[in-house]
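hey
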C-alpha cells in the first residue's frame, strides 16, 4: 500500500457513512417522502415528490444530516399558485419549520433529527425549459444517479472533504467555492479523486469542461463546467479564481506529500485585542476599519450581504489608493456587526500634494491651467517640471481615517452599505482602536495575520 493509499483509506474511515447511518437515513427519508405525498393527496394536488441532493445520490459525508425533498407541480400553474401550494405542503410536512426565500419561498425544518428543505418546483420536460432555477435540480439527480457507482460516490466524498479541509467547499457567495454538484461532476469527468487531483495540478485557467458536449453559450470564468442538463449554464460560475488556484495548490501539495491534515482543517486560535495590536506593531503597518451594526445590512442573507460588502470594500480600497494611501491588504467580515478592514503602509500624508498639469506646448489647455493657479495664494507654483506645468496644492484629506469619515460616500458601495453611509450610520476605527474588533472577529484576525493558500 502506498502512502497515498494509506492516507485515503484513513480519510474514508472518517467520512464514509456507517451502515447504521445509511439505514437510518433511508428509513427517515422514506417516511418523509411518504408524509409529503400524503400532504399532496390530502389537498387534491397534481404533483409528485422526489428526493434530490447528496443524500439521494449516496455522496453525502458522514455526519451530514440534510434531506432535500422537491414537490414538482405542472408548468401550467402560475408562480403564485406554485408558491401557495408548495408552502401549504411544506408547512404540513414540517409544522415546526419556517419559510425561507431563494428565487421563491420554500419550507425549512427538522424531521426526526434531520434538517429538511422542502422545495416546490415545476415538473418541466427538460432543464432547458426551467421556469425557476430550482427546476433543474431533479435533472441533476437523474443524471448522476445513472453514472455514479459506489466507487465514484466514495471518491466524491473524498473530494468534498478535501475541499472542506482547504476552505474551498461551498457555493454560497461568502465562500465562492465548489458546490456538491460541481464536485460530483468533476470526479465523474476525471473518473476518480486521484485522477482529478493529477489533472487539476496542471490546469491552465480558464479551464473548460463540457461533459455532455452540448455547450451553446460562452463563459468568462476561470473554471467552466457546462451543466450536462443545461447547455447554457456554467456549474462553476460562482467559483472564484482564488479558489481555483487554492484547489490547484493543494492538489500539488497532496500529490507531493500525502497528508490526512489536508482533509481536516484545524481551527485557528482567535487573537485577542492585545494580539491584534502586537501584530500591527510587528508589521509596522497602520489599520483602518469601518464598522456597521444596522439590522438592514446584517439581516440580509449571506448571498446578498457579502457581495455588497465586497463591492464596498473594493470601493474603499480604490478611494484610499486614489488619494495616496497605500493599502497592503484588505478584508471584510460579518457576524453581529459587519466590518471593512484595511491595513495600510501609509495612512497619513503631508499637507500638500503635487498636481501635474498639461505639457506647456498644449496651447489653450496649458494656458488655462497656468492662469487657474497663477494668482492662487494657496498653491506653490505653477512651475515647470520637464515639459509640464506643476503645482503643489493643499491636500483635502490628510489621513485615511478622515477619508473614511468624510468622503466614504464618494466611493462605489453596495446598496445597503450606501444607505448606511448616507445616514452616517457607521463607525470608523483607526490603528490601535481596531483591536476592539477582536472580541467578535478574533478568528478572522488570526487568519488575516497568518495567511495561508
Amino acid at each position: 500500500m502506498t502512502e497515498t493509499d494509506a492516507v485515503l483509506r484513513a480519510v474514508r474511515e472518517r467520512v464514509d457513512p456507517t451502515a447504521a447511518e445509511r439505514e437510518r437515513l433511508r428509513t427517515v427519508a422514506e417516511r418523509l417522502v411518504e408524509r409529503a405525498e400524503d400532504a399532496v393527496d390530502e389537498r387534491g394536488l397534481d404533483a409528485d415528490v422526489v428526493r434530490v441532493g447528496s443524500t439521494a445520490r449516496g455522496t453525502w459525508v458522514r455526519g451530514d444530516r440534510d434531506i432535500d425533498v422537491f414537490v414538482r407541480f405542472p408548468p401550467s400553474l402560475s408562480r403564485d399558485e406554485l408558491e401557495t401550494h408548495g408552502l401549504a405542503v411544506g408547512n404540513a410536512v414540517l409544522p415546526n419549520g419556517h419559510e425561507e426565500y431563494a428565487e421563491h419561498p420554500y419550507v425549512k425544518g427538522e424531521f426526526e433529527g434531520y434538517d429538511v428543505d422542502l422545495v416546490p418546483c415545476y415538473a418541466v420536460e427538460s432543464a432547458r425549459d426551467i421556469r425557476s432555477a430550482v427546476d433543474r435540480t431533479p435533472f441533476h439527480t437523474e443524471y448522476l444517479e445513472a453514472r455514479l457507482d459506489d466507487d465514484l460516490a466514495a471518491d466524491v466524498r473524498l473530494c468534498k472533504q478535501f475541499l472542506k479541509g482547504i476552505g474551498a467547499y461551498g457555493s454560497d457567495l461568502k465562500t465562492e467555492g465548489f458546490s456538491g454538484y460541481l464536485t460530483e461532476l468533476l470526479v465523474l469527468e476525471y473518473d476518480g479523486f486521484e485522477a482529478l487531483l493529477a489533472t487539476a495540478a496542471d490546469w491552465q485557467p480558464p479551464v473548460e469542461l463540457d461533459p455532455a458536449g452540448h455547450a451553446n453559450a460562452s463563459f468568462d470564468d476561470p473554471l467552466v463546467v457546462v451543466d450536462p442538463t443545461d447547455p447554457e449554464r456554467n456549474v462553476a460560475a460562482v467559483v472564484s479564481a482564488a479558489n481555483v488556484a487554492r484547489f490547484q495548490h493543494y492538489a500539488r501539495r497532496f500529490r507531493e506529500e500525502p497528508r490526512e491534515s489536508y482533509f481536516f482543517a484545524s481551527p485557528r486560535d482567535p487573537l485577542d485585542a492585545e494580539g491584534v495590536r502586537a501584530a500591527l506593531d510587528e508589521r509596522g503597518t497602520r489599520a483602518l476599519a469601518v464598522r456597521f451594526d444596522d439590522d438592514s445590512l446584517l439581516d440580509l442573507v449571506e448571498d446578498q450581504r457579502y457581495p455588497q460588502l465586497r463591492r464596498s470594500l473594493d470601493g474603499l480600497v480604490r478611494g484610499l489608493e486614489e488619494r495616496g494611501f497605500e493599502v497592503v491588504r484588505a478584508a471584510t467580515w460579518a457576524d453581529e456587526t459587519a466590518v471593512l478592514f484595511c491595513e495600510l503602509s501609509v495612512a497619513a500624508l503631508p499637507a500638500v500634494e503635487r498636481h501635474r498639469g498639461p505639457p506647456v506646448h498644449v496651447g489653450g489647455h496649458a494656458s488655462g491651467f497656468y492662469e487657474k493657479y497663477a494668482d492662487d495664494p494657496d498653491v506653490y507654483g505653477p512651475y515647470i517640471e520637464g515639459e509640464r506645468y506643476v503645482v503643489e496644492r493643499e491636500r483635502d484629506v490628510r489621513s485615511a481615517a478622515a477619508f473614511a469619515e468624510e468622503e466614504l460616500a464618494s466611493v462605489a458601495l453596495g446598496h445597503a452599505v450606501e444607505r448606511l453611509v448616507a445616514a452616517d450610520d457607521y463607525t470608523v476605527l483607526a490603528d490601535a482602536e481596531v483591536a476592539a474588533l477582536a472580541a467578535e472577529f478574533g478568528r478572522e484576525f488570526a487568519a488575516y495575520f497568518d495567511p495561508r493558500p
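The longest helix spans residues 19-42. DSSP finds 16 helices and 14 strands in the chain.
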